[in-house]
Amino acid sequence: PRVDAAWAAARASLAPLDVEFRHRAEATGPWRWLRSRGAPLAMESGASGQWVGVVEDVTARRAIEQALQQSYDSLRRAERLARIGSWTLDLESGHFSCSDMMYEINGWDPSGPPLTRNDLARLVSPESVARMRAAVERCISQGTPYAVMVEHLVPGGEGHFPAEVRGQAMRDASGRIVGLSGTVQDVTERM
To answer: What CA–CA distance (Å, rounded) separates 52 from 10?
Structure first.
């Protein structure tokens, strides 16, 4: 019914169609995911009533997407249990990205503005910033992984907690350092 409705709407509006659906060729055969795309053929005098289209089997792609989503969900659960957030930094573009748990540890909303390197520097004590910057610079210049204990400030100025910041170099195919990846973990329970 959903596919029939999509085709009916496309035919009525002469708009291209792109829909995915499950299909079983035989009553006892395996279910497959199919993607149907189509577009009306246009003639000089207007629409011809004819369509051109393709149907492709996207079962493998859907299985990969599902496995990827399950892996991502598992990672999110593990990060939440361990109170650990992950991040990456592209050195060429300066783009900084991080996990939802990284936002949560830092008291930020994952759906809000993105965290930046500068935001993180404001969330640790000045002494911690100096140690962290030295470790990061060594990692960028020499590829040395690091683990630094920091005093993490609670957003809103309501205290602090101990955290461990870890990082490592990411290299391109030629071995050049092109980025960093790492974690920030609330280690209050270890202290």
So the answer is: 13
Average pLDDT over residues 48-65: 92
Exposure of 29 in the CB half-sphere (CA atoms within 13 A): 9
pLDDT beyond 70 at 47: no
Among the residue ranges 22-31, 81-90, 109-118, the one predicted with the least confidence is 109-118
* Type of residue at 154: V
3-class state of residue 31 by DSSP: coil
Query: How far apart (Å, rounded) are the C-alpha atoms in residues 46 and 29?
Result: 42
| 99, 86 Cβ separation under 8 angstroms | yes
CA distance 5 to 15: 13
Q: Which tokens belong to 45? A: 């005098």
